[in-house]
Amino acid sequence: MALKKISYISLFPEAIDQGLSHSLVGKARASNQVELEWVQLRNFAKDKHRSVDDTCYGGGAGMLLRADVLYEAWHSIAGSSRPLTVLLSPQGRLFSQGLAKEWVSSHEHLVLVCGHYEGVDERFIESCVDLELSIGDYILTGGEFAAMVVSDVLIRLIPGVVGNADSVSHDSLEEGLLKAPQYTRPAEFMRKKVPEILLSGNHAKIEAWRHQESLERTRLKRPDLYDAYQKRLERQR
């Protein structure tokens, strides 16, 4: 099983469409390696003004997306099936490369619900949402930006989307570490030379050097990742 389809419930689906029309993701769509489906939330509004939000019971600032409108939009996608449904929210679980790999390998269809305004009626979350997901501890204008980030991460993990599989397996964070420094031509730039080890042709020594540099870079730049990596090693011993 591998991810084949992503559906979006959004007030601005055209923004996601435009953002995911380029580079590898655009090529994956053009070659039918993944299907993207857009659902305009306003099409399921019940009044002549196509209202999708309302004030909060109990008072408070801001407007909430209505549960009934969201449910109708979601049901138009889900039908009798139950695709993995994710609400993009600052209150959600933090997105990670590991979670992305899990979804790509275990779900064929994913629904991303793009929140807006003050949030979403809790009853829709309780009824239809499998997981709330955050891409970081900050506030965005809407869930569309987060949806593009999540989709880009997922789609490039679909088998065949990235031509060279080694490119994916050696990405930063794939093994819980940052990538080692990389160099290309010219061999000398502004009096800085490429490390001699990379010119040696000794692949075993090069890989050992890269692993050590990766460890050191992670320790300095992302001590949280480094500590987690060390703990995993201890558990494996």
Number of domains: 2
The CATH homologous superfamily of the largest domain is called SPOUT methyltransferase, trefoil knot domain
The name CATH uses for the topology of the largest domain is Alpha/beta knot
Rg result: 22 Å
Strand order of the largest sheet: 2-1-6-5-8
From the 3D coordinates, which CATH architecture of the largest domain would you assign?
A: 3-Layer(aba) Sandwich
Identify low-pLDDT runs: none
- What amount of the residues lies in strands? 15-25%
Annotation, overall tally of beta strands? 10
Tell me the major beta sheet. 5 strands, parallel
Annotation keywords:
237 residues, alpha/beta, Alpha/beta knot, Trp Operon Repressor, Chain A, 2 domains, five-stranded parallel β-sheet, three-stranded mixed β-sheet, 9 helices, 40% helix, elongated
How would you sum up this structure, described in words?
The structure is a single chain. With 237 residues, the protein is α/β, with parallel strands linked by helices. It folds into two domains: 5-155, Alpha/beta knot (3-Layer(aba) Sandwich); 170-236, Trp Operon Repressor, Chain A (Orthogonal Bundle). Helices cover 40% and strands 19% of the residues. It contains nine helices and ten strands. The chain has helices at 13-19, 23-30, 67-78, 97-106, 122-128, 143-155, 165-169, 203-221, 223-236, and strands spanning 5-10, 35-40, 53-55, 63-65, 84-94, 109-114, 119-120, 131-134, 188-189, 192-193. The strands form three sheets. A five-stranded parallel beta sheet has the order 2-1-6-5-8, with helices on both faces. Strands 3-4-7 form a three-stranded mixed beta sheet. Strands 9-10 form a two-stranded antiparallel sheet. A hairpin with a 2-residue loop joins strand 9 (188-189) and strand 10 (192-193). Helix 8 (203-221) packs across helix 9 (223-236). It is elongated and about 70 Å long. The model has no long low-confidence stretch (mean pLDDT 94).
